[in-house]
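Let's practice the habit of predicting before peeking. Look at the sequence and jot down your guess about where helices and strands might fall. Then scroll down.
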Amino acid sequence: MVNESVKAYLSSNNTPAFIFELNADYLLQYKRPLVRFEPLSKYPSVRRDVSMLISAEISVDALITLIKEIDKRIEDVALIDFFSKPEWKDKKAITLHVEMCDKEKTLVGDEVEALWQRVIAQLQQQGAVIR
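Done guessing? Here is the structure:
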């Protein structure tokens, strides 16, 4: 906000005045990110939740990345809940939501179960106790 003593030189009326600096180089060089349309799948997705007790040292981000890398049909992994108790010392409880979908066909029960077992096995390799 412009000081009262300087405001008289800038404006004839007595309204508040502001001075700011704008980085025009940034605006001139700014490129909008490319937005790519991806159509929704024709086939339904399958959603499952998994609750586990795991080492506090392992981040949720690392678990999400690990699960997504198991198979391309795992579309989304989201944190639902987490908590810890003092008596658990170096453990925390996490619940993750996993969404699976095949873009080419509807997943059948055996495919979903096989994919889910791979998710559980990967979590157990990280020391998770599935609850």
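How did you do? The first strand starts at residue 46 and ends at 55.
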